[in-house]
Amino acid sequence: MDDGVGSAAAITATGKKRPRLLRHTKSKPKEEEEEEKVPKEVDIEDLGFCRDETLEIRAFLLEWYDRNQRDLPWRRISSGDDEDGSERRAYAVWVSEVMLQQTRVQIVIDYFNRWMHKWPTICHLARASIEEVNEMWAGLGYYRRARYLLEGAKKIVEEGGVFPKTVSALLKVPGIGDYTAGAIASITFKEVVPVVDGNVVRVVARLKAISANPKESVTIKNFWKLAGQLVDPSRPGDFNQSLMELGATICTLLNPNCSVCPVSNHCRALSLARQNSSAQVTDYPTKVVKSKKRHEFSAVSVVEILEGQDMIEEFQPDGRFLLVKRPGEGLLAGLWEFPSVLLGVEADLATRRYAIDQFLKKSFNLDLKRSCTVVLREDIGEHIHVFSHIRLKMYVELLVLRLKGQRRVLHGEPDSKTMAWKSIDSKALSSMGLTSGVRKVYSMIQKFKQNKSKPIPGKTRKKKPPSS
């Protein structure tokens, strides 16, 4: 309720005007006046784009996108308005968007091209095995994405092979969430729906100077609402891509190029930065402190089985390497690795070797004292592999063995019903799709072998005399 102070006139309860009250006020310091000119932040739930603002942002972004969009292989497949080929376009958008999650565009291009060459349609993918898919995916990380692609393809094909065309239908496919559903529906089938990824969050947060925590569910919901207001009804797919493209190339995380931004005149963060020297465009979105990674430790044993009976050479071309398959759920589910044991804490060499010995004995009936001869056992070194939430320190050893009449242990079926394994030669291992962590371990082994096989200057290696 107005108390009448400072107003030209106030109306009393009886309807009569009462005299204006005049009060002397001190002039405000210049700093306070300048501070008042800076727009105040508004609660995110009260934010929105007005009609004129929306129309201008759509027009400017689409015009910019038409001139500056990157030439990417999935865009070549997904372009065009013809009905023929929409299934293939939807499939290409799906594969590319899943690959692009948590992965840079330049890395994805090669993977995408190889994937589409091997499985050009969803029907081709549905016939693949999880081993084939994992091998193709090796090195991209976040392997659950690959498994969901395969499961989703099988579900779509089993239900008739018709690709879902709406967000509501797409969300029923395993592994497809709000973002991927919005991308497929808008880009391929022109459904007027938004997409919100990290790039879109950054652009919208700066357009409206949103300081709310971008990880909180309420904030995320409002980002979707704001992005939905902007979507162009006639070109929803192109507009969504333009918003993501702007975030990826111009409105970047650390070095936004505001001078060439097509919507800089509508950017509240830029306006704040221009009016207040202490403000920066990069203040938005708000930086969230990442949770500390959990530290884990594992003993990794690269077990090589020698086939022949010659005891002279430690490294033979006919050696076979033992690989085990990780459980079907959890970290790196269903992927192949060298035998390893989680230690819980950092451990010394004796503790690590004891843990590995027990694992080999229990899992493969490999008793290092009874069933085989240890030709070489060498501590190779350490490798730290960083996951999104785990910092894994791997202690790597090379264990070269020769079996004592028990070859069936490594050439028959796995003894354990809960763990799959196989033994392969070095050529097959080198060409196999392995995770980056396993590849790093294997490269450490190869480097060790190369260094050990080099002749020592000034010394010659004695050869075993031929047997008489």
UniProtKB/TrEMBL annotation:
UniProt keywords, alphabetically: 4Fe-4S, DNA damage, DNA repair, Glycosidase, Hydrolase, Iron, Iron-sulfur, Metal-binding, Mitochondrion, Nucleus
Catalytic reactions on record: Hydrolyzes free adenine bases from 7,8-dihydro-8-oxoguanine:adenine mismatched double-stranded DNA, leaving an apurinic site
Location (main, coarse): mitochondrion
Gene3D superfamilies on file: Helix-hairpin-Helix base-excision DNA repair enzymes (C-terminal) (1.10.1670.10), Hypothetical protein, domain 2 (1.10.340.30), Nucleoside Triphosphate Pyrophosphohydrolase (3.90.79.10)
EC number from the UniProt entry: 3.2.2.31
Compositional bias of kind Basic residues: 15-27
InterPro entries: DNA_glycosylase, HhH-GPD_domain, HhH_base_excis_C, HhH_motif, MIG/MutY, MutY_C, NUDIX_hydrolase-like_dom_sf
Signal peptide stretch: none
Cofactor: [4Fe-4S] cluster
Cofactor note: Binds 1 [4Fe-4S] cluster.
Record domain HhH-GPD: where: 99-249
Region named Disordered: 1-39
Gene Ontology terms describing biological process: base-excision repair; mismatch repair
Subcellular location, record wording: Mitochondrion; Nucleus
Entry superkingdom: Eukaryota
GO MF assignments: 4 iron, 4 sulfur cluster binding; 8-oxo-7,8-dihydroguanine DNA N-glycosylase activity; adenine/guanine mispair binding; metal ion binding; oxidized purine DNA binding; purine-specific mismatch base pair DNA N-glycosylase activity
Keyword Iron annotated: yes
GO cellular component, one term: mitochondrion
Function: Involved in oxidative DNA damage repair. Initiates repair of A*oxoG to C*G by removing the inappropriately paired adenine base from the DNA backbone. Possesses both adenine and 2-OH-A DNA glycosylase activities.
Family, per entry: Belongs to the Nth/MutY family.
Protein name according to UniProt: Adenine DNA glycosylase
Record organism: Actinidia chinensis var. chinensis
